[in-house]
Design goal:
Elements: H1 9-12, H2 23-38, E1 45-47, E2 57-60, E3 67-87, E4 90-107, E5 113-119, H3 120-133
Antiparallel strand pairs: 1-2, 2-3, 3-4, 4-5
Length: about 140
């Protein structure tokens, strides 16, 4: 289901709760991926709070099949750089510090653990979405 984009700063600034894989949480993950695909012309990543649900779920991708991460944690980062980012939930762009290379641990929608390294734009997007999960707005 394609959901409306949340622009409520109070909701967006809340720390998101860990997920355990309940049917409702998995539906949120599906809704998030559907909503990201619907906004693919203007957005390459989303966090669940961007659709009004404060759960630790993100979707990110540069193609038609985004990667969905439950409970993502960035465990390593290197190559700091300064940039400016925009957000579908906010107007304008803001300066932010990011890292060119990251390693992330997460669970998939079957609650199976994964660990993978990312670099470049996808690493930047994942960092942005993980900030959302912690209530950090750019």
């Amino acid at each position: 289901m394609i959901c409306p984009i949340c622009k409520n700063l109070f909701t967006l600034s809340q720390h998101s709760a860990a997920v355990t894989g309940t049917p409702a949480e998995l539906q949120t993950a599906q809704n998030l991926a559907d909503t990201l695909r619907a906004h693919s012309a203007e957005c390459i990543g989303m966090a669940a709070n961007m659709i009004g649900v404060n759960q630790r779920i993100i979707a990110a991708g540069l193609g038609s099949a985004p990667i969905v991460m439950l409970n993502p944690v960035i465990t390593e980062k290197s190559g700091a750089f300064d940039t400016a980012e925009g957000c579908l939930s906010l107007t304008g762009t803001r300066p932010v510090k990011r890292y060119r290379n990251i390693t992330v641990q997460w669970q998939d929608t079957a609650m199976q653990p994964h660990e993978r390294s990312f670099s470049g734009l996808l690493a930047q997007v994942i960092q942005h979405e993980c900030d959302h999960l912690d209530g950090i707005l750019i």
